[in-house]
C-alpha cells in the first residue's frame, strides 16, 4: 500500500471527520445493515448460555489479575517461549518494533511476506515500514485484502471493510488484483461466492510461495508459551503453518496466566465477535517443532504506550479488551460516523478510550476522541470483559479539559488544557457558584420562567455551536418550587 491515503496521518479531529461521514448515504446504509446484522446474531449466540454473566465476570477477573502482575507473567512468558524454541524480542514503541521485524525479514533474504489480520501491526504501521525497506506485505484476511487493494483504511476491528458493499468490492477486485498478483476472473460478479473464489485463487499462490509469515495473536499463555489465533477463513492457518519463518507482533496485554484461562475466552470471544459458538479455525502453537510448521519463530512483545496506560487506575481497564468489536456494533455514534472518523486503527467506543491512552491526548484528533460518544452505556452492556467505557470516557474528558502531567514512553509530558473549553469551564464554575446559593438559584429560576417568551431559539456567540444541533428546552410556566408550594401547600 503506497501513498498516504491508507494511513491515519493527518486525519482531522472526530467532529470534522464525523460531520463529513454522516453526509455519505451509502456509507451509512452499509454500516447500518452490517452492524444490525452482527448485533442481532450476537444476541442470539449469547442467549444460549445461562452462565454468560458469570463468564463475563471471570473474563474480567482474569484480565485484572494478569494486569496487576503483568511483569511476572511477561517474564514467565519469555521463559516459556524460549524453552520451546522461540526467540523473544522486546519493543518499547512502534519504531523499535518495526526495526526488529524488518531486520528479521531482511535476515531471511526475502522481499515479501504474508500476513494474518493483526491490529498490533496496523497500530505500528508495519506495512509502511516494510515497504520502505523494499519488502512487500500481502494481507490475506479477506476484508484486509479488500482494504489493501483499495488503498483504503480499515474501519472496523472485526470487519475492516464493513464500509464497502459487494458492488464496490467487485470493482476493487477487477481493477486492482492484477497489479498485486493473480488477476480477478473475467466477468466477475458481486455474488459472495464469486468474490470469495476470486480472493482464494489470488491468495493461494502467495501462501504456497511465501517463506515468511507475520501475525499477531489473540492470546499468549504465560505458563506454556503458547500463542493463539482465532479466525474464520483459514488464511491464518495457512500463514501460521506454511512459511519457514513466523514473526508474531503482540501487545503485552494479550497475556493470560494459564492454559485453563483459555476456556473462558474461547467462549466469550467468538460469541461476541462473529456470533459463533466457536471460531472455525483456532490455531495454537508453542515455539517450534521439527518437521511441523515454521523452523524459526520470533515473538515481538509490544509496549507502545501500554505500560503508561497500565499506570492509570481508571484507564487501565481498556487493556482488558479482547478485540471482539461488540461495542462498535451497538454504538449509535459509530453506526453513523463509521470507523475512519476516529483517526485510528482502533475505531468505535474502545478506540475512543484506547487510542488517547496509547498515543496521548496532545493531538487534536486524540483530544477529540473521548467526546465521540453519547455515554449511552450500550458498549458496557455488551463488552464480554466488562470494560466500563463510559467511565473511562469521562475520565479522559477530564484529562483533556484540565490538562496535567502524564508519563508517555517513559518521559513526563505536560498536557495543555484543550483549546475551546474555556467557555465550558467558565460555565461549570458559574453553575457551581449558583447551586451553592439557594436564594440565587430560586431567583434565577423565577426570572427565567417569567421571561421565557423572549428566549431565543438558538444561543448566541460560542453557544451557537451547541444549539445548532440541539433544540433548547422550553421552560415551564412556573418553577417547580412555586408549583409545589401552590399545589401541596408545603414549605420549600
Which structural category fits the helices and strands?
alpha/beta
Number of strands: 12
Order the strands across the largest sheet as they lie in space: 1-10-7-4-2-3
Structure annotation, total helices: 23
The CATH C-level name of the largest domain is Alpha Beta
Q: What radius of gyration results from the CA coordinates?
A: 26 Å
Tally of distinct domains: 2
Would you give the CATH topology of the largest domain? Answer: Rossmann fold
Strand content: 5-15%
Distance, first to last CA = 69 Å
Q: Quickly give the CATH architecture of the largest domain.
A: 3-Layer(aba) Sandwich
Report the CATH superfamily of the largest domain: NagB/RpiA/CoA transferase-like
Low-confidence stretches: 1-5
The largest pleated sheet is described as: 6 strands, parallel
Helix proportion range: 40-55%
InterPro entries: 4Fe4S_Fe-S-bd, 4Fe4S_Fe_S_CS, FTHF_cligase-like_sf, Helical_ferredxn, LUD_dom, LutB/LldF, LutB_C, NagB/RpiA_transferase-like
Domain LUD: 76-301
Region (Disordered): 448-471
Biased composition (Basic residues): 449-458
Amino acid at each position: 500500500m503506497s501513498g498516504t491515503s491508507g494511513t491515519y496521518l493527518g486525519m482531522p479531529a472526530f467532529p470534522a471527520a464525523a460531520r463529513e461521514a454522516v453526509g455519505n448515504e451509502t456509507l451509512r446504509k452499509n454500516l447500518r445493515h452490517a452492524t444490525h446484522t452482527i448485533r442481532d446474531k450476537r444476541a442470539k449466540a449469547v442467549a444460549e448460555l445461562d452462565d454468560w454473566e458469570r463468564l463475563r465476570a471471570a473474563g474480567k477477573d482474569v484480565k485484572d489479575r494478569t494486569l496487576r502482575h503483568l511483569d511476572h507473567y511477561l517474564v514467565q512468558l519469555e521463559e516459556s517461549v524460549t524453552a520451546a524454541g522461540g526467540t523473544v524480542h522486546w519493543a518499547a514503541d512502534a519504531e523499535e518494533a518495526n526495526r526488529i521485524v524488518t531486520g528479521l525479514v531482511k535476515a531471511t533474504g526475502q522481499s515479501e511476506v504474508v500476513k494474518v489480520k493483526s491490529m498490533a501491526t496496523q497500530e505500528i504501521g508495519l506495512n509502511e515500514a516494510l515497504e520502505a525497506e523494499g519488502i512487500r506485505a500481502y494481507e490475506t484476511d479477506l476484508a484486509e485484502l479488500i482494504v489493501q487493494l483499495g488503498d483504503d483504511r480499515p474501519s472496523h476491528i472485526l470487519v475492516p471493510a464493513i464500509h464497502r458493499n459487494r458492488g464496490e468490492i467487485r470493482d476493487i477486485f477487477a481493477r486492482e488484483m492484477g497489479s498485486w498478483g493473480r488477476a480477478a476472473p473475467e466477468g466477475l460478479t458481486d455474488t459472495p461466492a464469486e468474490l470469495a473464489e476470486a480472493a482464494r485463487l489470488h491468495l493461494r499462490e502467495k501462501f504456497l510461495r511465501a517463506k515468511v509469515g507475520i501475525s499477531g495473536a489473540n492470546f499468549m499463555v504465560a505458563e506454556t508459551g503458547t500463542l493463539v489465533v482465532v479466525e474464520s477463513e483459514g488464511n491464518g492457518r495457512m500463514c501460521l503453518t506454511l512459511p519457514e519463518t513466523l514473526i508474531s507482533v503482540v501487545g503485552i496485554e494479550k497475556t493470560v496466566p494459564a492454559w485453563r484461562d483459555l476456556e473462558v475466552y474461547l467462549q466469550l470471544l467468538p460469541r461476541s465477535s462473529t456470533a459463533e459458538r466457536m471460531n472455525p479455525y483456532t490455531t495454537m502453537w508453542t515455539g517450534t517443532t521439527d518437521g511441523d510448521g515454521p523452523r524459526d519463530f520470533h515473538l515481538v512483545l509490544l509496549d507502545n504506550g501500554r505500560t503508561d496506560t497500565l499506570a492509570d487506575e481508571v484507564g487501565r481497564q481498556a487493556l482488558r479488551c479482547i478485540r471482539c468489536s461488540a461495542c462498535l456494533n451497538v454504538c449509535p455514534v459509530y453506526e453513523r460516523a463509521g470507523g475512519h472518523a476516529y483517526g485510528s486503527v482502533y475505531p468505535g467506543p474502545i478506540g475512543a478510550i484506547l487510542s488517547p491512552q496509547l498515543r496521548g491526548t496532545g493531538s487534536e484528533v486524540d483530544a477529540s476522541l473521548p467526546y465521540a460518544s453519547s455515554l449511552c452505556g450500550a458498549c458496557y452492556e455488551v463488552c464480554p470483559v466488562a470494560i466500563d467505557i463510559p467511565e473511562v470516557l469521562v475520565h479522559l474528558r477530564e484529562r483533556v479539559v484540565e490538562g496535567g502531567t502524564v508519563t508517555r514512553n517513559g518521559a513526563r509530558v505536560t498536557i495543555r488544557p484543550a483549546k475551546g473549553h474555556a467557555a465550558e469551564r467558565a460555565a461549570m464554575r458559574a453553575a457551581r457558584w449558583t447551586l451553592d446559593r439557594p436564594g440565587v438559584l430560586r431567583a434565577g429560576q423565577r426570572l427565567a420562567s417569567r421571561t421565557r417568551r423572549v428566549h431565543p431559539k438558538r444561543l448566541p456567540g460560542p453557544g451557537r455551536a451547541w444549539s445548532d444541533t440541539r433544540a433548547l428546552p422550553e421552560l415551564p410556566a412556573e418553577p417547580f418550587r412555586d408549583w409545589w408550594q401552590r399545589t401541596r401547600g408545603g414549605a420549600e
